[in-house]
Design a protein that fits this description.
With about 230 residues, this protein is mostly helical. The chain has a single domain, classed as Methane Monooxygenase Hydroxylase, Chain G, domain 1. Helix 1 runs antiparallel to helix 2, helix 2 packs antiparallel against helix 3 and helix 5 packs antiparallel against helix 7. One of its GO terms (cellular component) is cytoplasm. Homodimer. It is found in: Cytoplasm.
Length: about 230
């Protein structure tokens, strides 16, 4: 970001960046723990994931307050305004990622109560690893203001979507073969749905980063179109 005459303004923007990365780190660990909890049907770990949610919500509120203060007191323009607007949107996506991690943890607790599902854990493990990598990469892209790395995250989301559709087809066979397992298998389905949504939110953040760095609004745009617009910028 550009340097300013007011060192305080620079400090305010750097603080925003640090707070987003700290919140991102908390959410990233939530995701890692929730996936591990449902893989291993670990109730204790799942309950830990649920306990972190208040911290994530508190961080979102604090970031919103800081963004509002900067808008009111500094009246930022150009790239500075994009920074503040992007942060407000990114924190919303991070908070929703935390919500999805919470849902995965709740499914882990349900499986702990009802007994393990007959299958689907390999899909949880594989999709979980893909999404965890997306979240780590998108936070790194923000730390570096790297639009190309953000584009890579958007590309990865298409792979997650394909894996999700494939997993759904596989899991339906478990329900057909053993109707008595439908309730337990549904917990796996809802967890996979939450993992897929985390990927969607990671892509949203990637799009916010591209807007921040390049000034391009690429929401509701295909990966191919994003590539073309970045090449022209």
């Amino acid at each position: 970001m550009e340097r300013h005459i007011s060192q305080r303004f620079d400090s305010d923007l750097e603080a925003l960046k640090s707070q987003v990365l700290e919140m991102g780190g908390v959410v990233e660990q939530q995701i890692i723990d929730s996936v591990k909890a449902i893989e291993s049907v670990d109730r204790t770990l799942a309950e830990h994931v649920l306990s972190v949610e208040d911290d994530v919500d508190r961080r979102e509120v604090l970031l919103d307050e800081n963004c509002t203060m900067i808008l009111a007191c500094r009246q930022p323009a150009a790239s500075d305004l994009r920074m503040v607007l992007s942060v407000t949107k990114m924190t919303r996506d991070l908070e929703r990622m935390g919500d999805e991690a919470q849902k995965i943890a709740q499914m882990a607790i349900a499986l702990s109560d009802d007994g393990a599902a007959p299958g689907g854990y390999e899909s949880i493990r594989h999709m979980g690893a893909l999404v965890q990598k997306m979240v780590n990469s998108v936070l790194d892209a923000f730390a570096r203001f790297d639009a190309d790395k953000a584009l890579d995250v958007a590309r990865a989301d298409t792979q997650v979507d394909r894996e999700y559709q494939s997993a759904m087809r596989e899991i339906v066979t478990y329900m057909m073969e053993d109707p008595r397992s439908i309730g337990r298998v549904m917990n796996i389905i809802w967890a996979l749905r939450s993992i897929e949504r985390i990927g969607d939110h990671a892509r949203n953040i990637a799009e916010h980063i591209i807007y921040l760095v390049k000034g391009l609004d690429v929401r509701h745009t295909s990966v191919h179109e994003i590539e073309m617009r970045l090449n022209k910028s």
